C-alpha cells in the first residue's frame, strides 16, 4: 500500500524513509477532520504554522488541499510570481477558515535536495530567474513544484504577516518586519542552502562545502547573505554575482597554476627519492 510523503508528496511504499527526500514516513495517513466541499478521501499529510495540508480526491483526480490556520492571524498582501500555479478552487469554511485546492503535484523541490553545489546552483538559478526565490512569498519546499519541466509555485493561500516556523525566512521577519530587499537576499541564500543540504538556516548551518574550517568561497558567499543583521548582508545583485562566481569554481588559469605546482612538487619528490637511492647504492650504505 502506497502512502504520500508529507514532505515531498511522493507516493511510495518504501518505508520507513522516503526514497525521494529521505524523510521518515508515517506508517499510515490518518483521516482528516476538515471537510472541504467537493473533496473526498481526505487524509492529513501534515499540520504546521501555515495550517493543515491534506491529500484527497476531487472529480476523480488527486488533489492537494490547504486549510488555513485559526482566525485572527494577520496576513500580508503579496503578488505571486509569473510562474505560479493558481488553485483549482478556494473558499472559506463556515467559521471563516480559508482553504485552497490544487492538482496534486508529482514532483516538488523537496525531492531535489542534497545536490552537489554546481548542480544545486543550476537549479537555484532556474528558480531565481522564474521569479520564485526573489519574491516576498515565503513558501514551504513542497509548494514549489515542477509542471511540464518548468518550476512553478503554488499560489492562492493568504500569507501570514509573521511567517510560521519551518519556512526559509529572515530573522527580522519573526518580529513582524515586512519583507524588504535585505530579507529577500537572506531568503534567496537560504533556498540555495536548502537545495544543496536539505537544511533550513537554523542555528549554525553546515557549510555548503561541508568544511568545518577554511571555508570555501561558496560558503562565504552564502553565509554573508545569511547574516542576522540586515545591514550587513550584501545587495541582491552582489550576492547573485558572488554565488555565481563561487559555484563556477576557480578560473582555468588558477586550475592550471595549481596543477603545475602539483606536477613540480611530484618531480622534486621523485628526484629527491632517486638521489637517496643512488647515494645508498653507490656508497653501499645498506
Description:
- It is a single chain.
- Helix content is 29%, strand content 19%.
- It is of the alpha+beta class and 286 residues long.
- It folds into two domains: 3-248, Transferase(Phosphotransferase), domain 1, CATH 1.10.510; 255-286.
- Strand 4 and strand 5 (61-67) form a beta hairpin.
- Helix 1 (117-129) crosses helix 2 (181-197).
- The protein is elongated and about 100 Å long.
Give a summary of the structure in a few sentences.
The protein is of the alpha+beta class and 286 residues long. Helices cover 29% and strands 19% of the residues.
Could you outline the blueprint of secondary structure elements for this entry?
Layout lengths: L2 E2 L6 E2 L27 E9 L2 E8 L2 E7 L7 E2 L7 E2 L3 E4 L5 E6 L13 H13 L14 E4 L2 E5 L4 E2 L20 H17 L19 H9 L10 H13 L3 H31 L4
Helix pairs in contact: 1-2, 3-4
List the defining traits of the structure above.
29% helix, alpha+beta, 2 domains, 19% strand, three-stranded mixed beta sheet, 12 strands, 286 residues, single chain, 5 helices, Transferase(Phosphotransferase), domain 1, five-stranded antiparallel beta sheet
Question: How many helices does DSSP assign?
Answer: 5
Q: Indicate the CATH class of the largest domain.
A: Mainly Alpha
> How much β-strand is present in the residues?
15-25%
Helical content (DSSP H or I, runs of 4+): 25-40%
CATH architecture of the largest domain: Orthogonal Bundle
Largest sheet descriptor:
5 strands, antiparallel
Number of strands: 12
Total number of domains: 2
Low-confidence stretches: 251-257
Radius of gyration: 25 Å
CATH third-tier fold name of the largest domain: Transferase(Phosphotransferase), domain 1
Amino acid at each position: 500500500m502506497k502512502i504520500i510523503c508529507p514532505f515531498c508528496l511522493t507516493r511510495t511504499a518504501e518505508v520507513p524513509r522516503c526514497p525521494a527526500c529521505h524523510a521518515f514516513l508515517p506508517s499510515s495517513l490518518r483521516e482528516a477532520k476538515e471537510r472541504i466541499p467537493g473533496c473526498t478521501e481526505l487524509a492529513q499529510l501534515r499540520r504546521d504554522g501555515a495550517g493543515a495540508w491534506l491529500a484527497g480526491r476531487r472529480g476523480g483526480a488527486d488533489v492537494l488541499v490547504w486549510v488555513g490556520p485559526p482566525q485572527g492571524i494577520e496576513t500580508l498582501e503579496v503578488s505571486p510570481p509569473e510562474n505560479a500555479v493558481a488553485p483549482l478552487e478556494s473558499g472559506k469554511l463556515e467559521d471563516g477558515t480559508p482553504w485552497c485546492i490544487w492538482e496534486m503535484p508529482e514532483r516538488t523541490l523537496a525531492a531535489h535536495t542534497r545536490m552537489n553545489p554546481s548542480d544545486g546552483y543550476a537549479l537555484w538559478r532556474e528558480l531565481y530567474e522564474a521569479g520564485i526565490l526573489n519574491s516576498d512569498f515565503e513558501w514551504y519546499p513542497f509548494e514549489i513544484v515542477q509542471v511540464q519541466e518548468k518550476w512553478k509555485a503554488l499560489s492562492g493561500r493568504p500569507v501570514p504577516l509573521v511567517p510560521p516556523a519551518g519556512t526559509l525566512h529572515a530573522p527580522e521577519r519573526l518580529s513582524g518586519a515586512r519583507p524588504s530587499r535585505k530579507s529577500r537576499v537572506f531568503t534567496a541564500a537560504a533556498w540555495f542552502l536548502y537545495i544543496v543540504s536539505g537544511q533550513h538556516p537554523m542555528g549554525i548551518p553546515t557549510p555548503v562545502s561541508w568544511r568545518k574550517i577554511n571555508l570555501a568561497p561558496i560558503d562565504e558567499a552564502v553565509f554573508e547573505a545569511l547574516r542576522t543583521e540586515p545591514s550587513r548582508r550584501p545587495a541582491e545583485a552582489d550576492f547573485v554575482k558572488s554565488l555565481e562566481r563561487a559555484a563556477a569554481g576557480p578560473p582555468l588559469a588558477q586550475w592550471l597554476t595549481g596543477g603545475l605546482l602539483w606536477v613540480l612538487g611530484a618531480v622534486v619528490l621523485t628526484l629527491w627519492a632517486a638521489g637517496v637511492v643512488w647515494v645508498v647504492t653507490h656508497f653501499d650504505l645498506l
